[in-house]
Amino acid sequence: MATVLILLSLFSLLPITDGNHVNCSTEIKGIPPDFTKINGLWNIQLILSLEDIKFKDKGVAYIFSRVSANEKEANISVSYNPLSIEGGEVTCKRIGHGDSGDLSYEFTFLNGTKSVITIVQPHPGSLIIYYRENGVYKLAVLYYKETSLPPNEVEHFSKWSQCKNLHPTFDLDTSINYAEQCSGLLEKSDDLDDVQHAVFLNLVGKSVSSEDFFSRFKMLYTARLEILHLDGKYTVREYKKKTVEYKEAEYNYIKGSKTDDIKISTFKTEKDLLLLGVRKGSSRTLYLASKTFKAEEHVLDKFLIQATCFGNQYTYFVPGTRERDHGGNKS
Fold first, then answer.
1. Which residues have a Cβ under 8 Å from the Cβ of 127 and sit 6 or more positions away?
2. With a threshold of 0.85, does the pTM exceed it?
3. Residues 8-39: pLDDT tens digits?
């Protein structure tokens, strides 16, 4: 089960159990299935499950899925903000067409346990996917396309899910269309592998998950990043200087470690720049650093979006680091 991610790492976090079908007269009705309206990117608004899933402990800020279904099979993938839970996908075979406007597919785990995945679309702007094993409802997910759903629709879904003995597990931010804005924006890179012994860079921008002193107050200062590497062990240090330089933060990371409280990754960006993400517990930091003292405007504008997609709320730039564009790619 650990090698398969069903809705995708959502479902794989739940234990496989036996049980009787929940008898409940309340059912979700959907419009006639239309794959052109079902397929595509969807934001997750609400998750209800049989078991508690510790999303906050794993640093999750948002989740979205890509659905690709047809008459024969369905592929559902899930993406989270970076350095939280690894995303994944599942492909399942069509098993039937219900009379309430739903589509049912079946997936078989390596141990032989079968899971039924049902897709229902109440209206073109919303989607519901729920999972059953041995007749027991294990997980139900409510999606929205572009804007969050009205309270009455969320309440109806919640009542239906609670009737199936499912309970809310996580409150997700629905103020942003993460699926549209963040899909493919933060691609991991191997820039850390290129660090031979030590790299010293000027800090241009920083984004944090919790408000800090520099995100609240404007002042003149300089900042830099120092990255040390020896045999797969990395040390990242952030320095700031107003009058006297001091160490703002230090992170020690072993590549490939699954027990460390710290996760570090670099993401693709432009030449002579470094985009470095750090997660320590529930705290997230995204750095934009440069070999020079500046970055062009389109890079900083993009960093603002990347910071949001990293799951952060507070972003600021080191004074004097904005450089006017000189014909670079402004995407």
1. 38, 42, 67, 119, 120, 121, 142, 143, 145
2. no
3. 455 444 443 433 333 455 567 888 989 999 99
Q: Is 236 left (phi over 0), alpha (psi -120 to 50) or beta?
A: beta
Rounded CA-CA distance 76/95 in Å is 16
Q: What are phi and psi of 166, to 5 degrees?
A: -100, 150
Domains plus CATH for the chain?
9-182 (2.40.128.20), 188-323 (2.40.128.20)
Which position has the token pair 């030590």? Answer: 198
So what's the pLDDT on residue 331?
Answer: 35
- Coil, strand, or helix at residue 307? helix
The confidence score (pLDDT) of residue 162 equals: 85
Query: Whole-angstrom distance between the N-terminal and C-terminal Cα of the chain?
Result: 40
**Distance of alpha carbon 307 from alpha carbon 303, whole angstroms:** 6
